[in-house]
TrEMBL record:
InterPro entries associated with the record: Glycosyl_Trfase_fam3_N_dom, Glycosyl_Trfase_fam3_N_dom_sf
Gene Ontology molecular function, alphabetical: glycosyltransferase activity
Domain Glycosyl transferase family 3 N-terminal: 3-38
Official protein name in the record: Anthranilate phosphoribosyltransferase
Keywords, comma-separated and alphabetical: Glycosyltransferase, Transferase
Length: 38
């Protein structure tokens, strides 16, 4: 688990930049998973 997601899970405050990066990481992971599944 990356640092941004760990902070979210632990309920720590994220900066806008951190939230943006965490969102991009989640998005890219979802895309990779769907590519593998296809």
């Amino acid at each position: 688990m990356n640092n941004y997601l760990r902070k979210l899970v632990e309920g720590q405050h994220l900066t806008e930049e951190e939230m943006y990066k965490a969102g991009l990481l989640l998005l890219s992971e979802n895309i990779l998973e769907s590519e593998i599944a296809a």
